[in-house]
Amino acid sequence: MVFDAFERMVAFRYLRARRKEGFISVIAGFSLLGIALGVATLIIVMAVMNGFRAELMSRILGLNGHISVYAAGAPMTDFDDLAERIRQMQSVHRVVPTVEGQVMATNQGASSGAMVRGVRPSDLLSREVVAEGLHGDPSQFTGDDAVIVGYRLAQKLGLSVGDNITLISPQGTATAFGTVPRMRAYRIVATFDVGMFEYDSGFIFMPLEAAQVYFRLPEAVTYLEVFATTPEAVTALRSAIPNNADRPVTLYDWQQANASFFNAIQVERNVMFLILTLIILVAAFNIISSLIMLVKDKGRDIAVLRTMGATRGMIMRIFFLSGASIGVVGTVSGVILGLSFALNVDRIRHFLEGITGVDLFAAEIYFLSQLPARVDPMEVLWVVGMALGLSFGATIYPAWRAARLDPVEALRYE
User: Fold this and answer.
1) Confidence class of residue 367 from pLDDT cuts 50, 70 and 90?
2) Does residue 370 carry a pLDDT above 80?
3) Residue 169's closest CA among 101, 100, 110, 74?
4) Count of C-beta atoms within a 10 Å radius of residue 297
5) What are the tens digits of pLDDT across the range 16-70?
6) What does the alpha-carbon distance between residue 193 and residue 63 come to, in Å, rounded to a whole number?
7) Whole-angstrom distance, CA of residue 361 vs CA of residue 356
8) What pLDDT does residue 283 have?
């Protein structure tokens, strides 16, 4: 072993300070606590940030295609032929013809802006994120008067399954008295809950044929939604789709649509990592100060050990082990605390909300209806390595000072 039994015995005895050395022990205790809290906080924050990104990506890409294919300059006609061409391409999972338009949804004086998407019933139910959150009878999603709305939008307008919702399109009908907005009532056959406030409060699904009639796109769609096998496959598909299309097309992928959003999350994640690393750095400085005070207090003991035959290397290893023990115990405690908190973060949130009566995670602000956390083992190892590295580095200078102590000078006035 690197440290023999004598060195371990002396190092751990120095950590158990006597009453007159209690202040040194207090500083060492706060150093240990600081490292534990720093490691735990880093693990928790990184897990929550990873969870946010993963949940947002899964829900955004579960409801929206990875690539949207538009016909250049006009609505897309003969879309089924192009959709079949794209389906045959490698890395393509599903292609969904879609009619999209903005409307005003109203009911008894209450109103809200909404986005209507017209899709075929089979295409809608094949989206797991929507199918898992449906409440109602999706088999009735047929005909020219059926819609499925987000449950938050239904709550906002005071509607439920079976009620009628009135949609007003800004693309009105031209008359002698000007443009008159188109209005029509639709029956709500189901509501959906995908767990994202933006979609649950602002999206309405309509059968494709009914949407074509409402938005006056006979035999045409607004675009094709292409779902790839993986989000990373869009890079290859961006060049392959135009080459296989029989007409000029314009592509818009999920990276372009959400680039600023995911970049902001990544920047925030990196800044939080840097800021929280300072907690561990401050704790490492506390280790330095406690060890320097310990070396000064144990000057006579060091001199006696040197006169009894202890080498400078032994003295250095004793004090290195004393400081490193604080870092190791603090890091292990922080990992246990951080993992326990990260794996139960949503339960803890509900517990605190029950005690305080305050909504700590409003869906209107944070987009998601629950607090996600995803622990990355490699990130945990990185945090552990960084904490141990700073802790070990903090012990080198005090241990070197102890090893350089001259026994003659230390015992001259004893």
Assistant:
1) low
2) no
3) 101
4) 15
5) 655 555 555 677 777 888 888 888 988 888 888 888 777 777 777 777 888 888 8
6) 11
7) 13
8) 80
Cα-flanking dihedrals φ and ψ of residue 176, to 5°? Answer: -65, -20
What span, in angstroms and rounded, lies between the C-alpha atoms of 48 and 340? 13
Distance CA 338, CA 354 (A): 22
The DSSP annotation for 352-376 comes to HHHHH---SS-HHHHSBSS------
- Of 191, 254, 347, give the one whose Cα is nearest residue 62: 254
| CA-based nearest residue to 234, from 374, 350, 44, 65 | 65
Burial of 230 (C-beta count, 10 Å sphere; 0-12/13-18/19+): exposed
Q: Count CB-CB contacts under 10 A for residue 359.
A: 11
Say what angle helices 312-342 and 254-297 make with each other, to 10 degrees.
140
Mean pLDDT for the stretch of residues 158-173: 85
Site of tokens 């280790």? 287
Predicted local distance difference test score (pLDDT) of residue 290: 77
User: DSSP 3-state assignment of 209?
Assistant: helix
- Centre a 10 Å sphere on the Cβ of residue 172 and count the other Cβ atoms it contains: 13
State the amino acid at position 313 in one-letter form. G
Which run of H or of E encompasses 69?
A: strand 67-71
Tens-digit pLDDT profile for residues 220-247: 899 999 888 888 788 888 888 888 777 7
Rounded Cα distance, 60 and 258, in Å: 9
- CA 146: distance to chain centroid? 36
